[in-house]
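Tutorial handout. Part one gives the primary structure; part two gives the three-dimensional structure as tokens.
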Amino acid sequence: MNQPINIYSALNEAGLLWQAKKIPFDDNIIIMDDYIFRDHLLFLSQGIAKIEIKRNQAWEFETLVANDTILGLEHCFLPNIYADKMEYRMTSLNEGIAFEIPKQQLLSYLYAHPLVFHQLIEDLTIRYKFLTFNQQEKKAPLKQRIIDLLMEFIILTHQEDQGEYLKIPFFKEEFISTSLKCSTQHIQHILSSLAEQQIICITENQELVIHYPHLKKFSTIA
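Part two.
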């Protein structure tokens, strides 16, 4: 099996990041607001962030992203009638760096480098598979669904190989309630149960610490 391509290294070696707008950011700040993808795409090279989409004039949690993610790539393949209606906001969960890359330059590069393009499409496919999985498993016990969602968060933030204890900074119950369409009251009870089992721990500064080997043992995704 081929090793995943390091997207940052590939784009940097091609010179795409040299003239791109570099956006360093601290933790817990809005990196972009009311962002609509038209002429540029946003590449997250370092850090973890949450993505929110504006629905009914309010921002709603959508997913987590991390290093080597290009935000808005799906808008390159949709008619403008749909793409222009999607408004994103990205808020950092820890320190990192993003780049704003001209869309046409990136598309020209991907056309000439199909392996990099394939890697990006594979990452998008994983996200859509998780969305489908969460919908298909909506009748499963809520505790199992939450365990699987936490596993998804680890995969989406590229932390599978980062050690025994993994972290999601500035964690909110909204991450779960919005993703699984369930009440926060039930979530609180299950998170307390997972903490008693020493699968997770939520610190005073809202950091979710996950004991990865233990979580993996109970997840149906692993």
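Part three, for discussion. The radius of gyration is 18 Å. Residues 143 and 189 are 9 Å apart (CA to CA).
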